[in-house]
Amino acid sequence: MRKLVYYVAVSLDGYIAGPQDEVEFYPIGEDMMGWFGEAMPDTVPTHVREMIGMPIDTPNRHFDTVLMGRGSYEPGLAAGTDSPFNHLKQYVFSRTLAPVENPQVEVVSGDAVELVRRLKKEEGLDIWLCGGADLAGQLLGEIDQLIIKSYPVLAGAGQPMIVGNFDPTLFKVAQRREFANGTQVTWFDRI
Fold first, then answer.
1. What are the φ/ψ torsions at residue 178 (nearest 5 degrees)?
2. Which helix (H) or strand (E) element contains residue 148?
3. Distance of alpha carbon 91 from alpha carbon 88, whole angstroms
4. What distance in Å separates the CA atoms of residue 16 and residue 90, rounded to the nearest whole number?
5. Closest by Cα among 185, 129, 132 to 161
6. What region, left, alpha or beta, does residue 15 occupy, with left being phi > 0 and alpha being psi -120 to 50 degrees?
7. Residue percentage of the chain with pLDDT more than 70
8. Are the CB atoms for 125 and 63 separated by under 8 Å?
9. How many CB atoms lie within 10 A of CB 133?
10. How is residue 86 annotated by DSSP?
11. Strands 159-160 and 126-131, bridge-based pairing
12. Which residues lie below 8 Å from residue 52, measured CB to CB, with a gap of 6+?
């Protein structure tokens, strides 16, 4: 059965973006860029791959599907692409976004939990929950694994990692990797 994996960057105080969706304050080191390209190529936007020297047709290793809220999808639109992860099937959750004329992108206005349960039963690689906080809150009961890129920076305010009902959910550390600038990537499995 496929897993739903919430893979996201977060500040020390729990924010995935600033108040205006800023993410430029996260310190990126060279050792991190190389590692992400090799270990998590699926999560590198298609339109960014050539800019960082990654072949555009680099095979997916972990994911073949990505789920995004509108806020996570809009940076791709701002960059001029309606399919930021064209190497993945993309589901964009929005009640206001018009359908997209790209077979890789499906705008969903319905129940996120129902869709995820259906997707988990299908054959394929795991499902990446890219963000945002509202969508993560809706899907908390379906998240099987967290991969948290914890950056050594305090944001002070912004978009939290998850918004939803009080629902304590235990995870255990499965693996951790640290980079030269102090950023850590930690894999947590649901208990």
1. -115, 145
2. strand 145-150
3. 10
4. 20
5. 132
6. beta
7. 100
8. yes
9. 22
10. T
11. unpaired
12. 33, 37, 44
Q: Is-contact 7 16, C-beta < 8 A?
A: no
What pLDDT, in 10s, does the model give residues 34-76?
Answer: 898 899 999 999 999 998 889 999 999 999 999 999 999 999 9
DSSP-derived secondary structure for 10-45: E-TTSEEE-TTS--TTS---HHHHHHHHHH-GGGS-
Hey, what are 107's tokens?
Answer: 């705008």
Instruction: Encode pLDDT of 145-165 as tens digits.
Output: 999 999 999 999 999 999 999
Answer yes or no: are the C-beta atoms of 43 and 149 closer than 8 Å.
Answer: no
Q: Which two tokens stand for residue 145?
A: 């694994």
Contacting residues for 6 by C-beta, under 8 A, at least 6 apart: 129, 136, 139, 143, 145, 146, 147
Q: How many residues are there in the chain?
A: 191
Q: What average pLDDT is seen over the chain?
A: 96
Contact between 8 and 132 (Cβ < 8 Å): no
Q: What is the CATH number of domain 4-184?
A: 3.40.430.10
Phi-psi region of 110 (alpha: psi -120 to 50; beta: other; left: phi over 0): beta
Distance CA 41, CA 38 (A): 6
CA distance 169 to 111: 21
